[in-house]
Design a protein that fits this description.
two-stranded antiparallel ribbon, 4 strands, 154 residues, 18% strand, globular
Length: 154
């Protein structure tokens, strides 16, 4: 079993899911703060790419994009441009997040762990929590969809 964490992100546009990911980190994180910071940096990269796509499609979107992170230390690290001892071991490429926050393209916002929809991609969950997060994603079970279709409720 490896020591690399799994991270995930989820983006919506007009309440519809448009992008999501679940992957293993490319590096071993030394703390939960670092793991969350790296995950947020990966999400920031996807966010910048989505902004280019939106621009090409002439779609409007809320600016700055809100990135919900459930670790206050990672949020402070993203907002604070001063390098300090607890971040000196983090690879430079992950400070892309800090750069995007500094430019005003991203706003890093704290969200309660209970509101973290991306947990469905990264954590083992009980059935109730899985179904709750699946509902928040707007995803239905195949059985539910088939039943609704057979009675004409889609």
């Amino acid at each position: 079993m490896g020591r690399k964490n799994t991270y995930g992100y989820f983006f919506k546009y007009l309440k519809a899911p448009i992008s999501w990911c679940s992957k293993k980190h490319t590096v071993v994180a030394l703390s939960s703060c670092e793991a969350e910071y790296i995950a947020a940096a990966e999400a920031a990269c996807q966010c910048v790419w989505l902004e280019f796509v939106f621009g090409d499609l002439k779609l409007n979107h809320v600016k700055p994009v809100q990135l919900c992170v459930d670790n206050k230390s990672a949020i402070n690290l993203a907002k604070n441009p001063i390098s300090h001892g607890r971040s000196k071991h983090i690879e430079t490429k992950f400070h892309f997040l800090r750069e995007q926050v500094g430019k005003g393209k991203l706003e890093v916002k704290h969200c309660n762990t209970k509101e973290q929809v991306a947990d469905i991609f990264t954590k083992p969950l009980g059935l109730d929590r899985f179904e709750e997060l699946r509902e928040w994603l707007g995803v239905r079970s195949v059985a539910e969809f088939s039943l609704r279709k057979s009675v004409g409720i889609c």
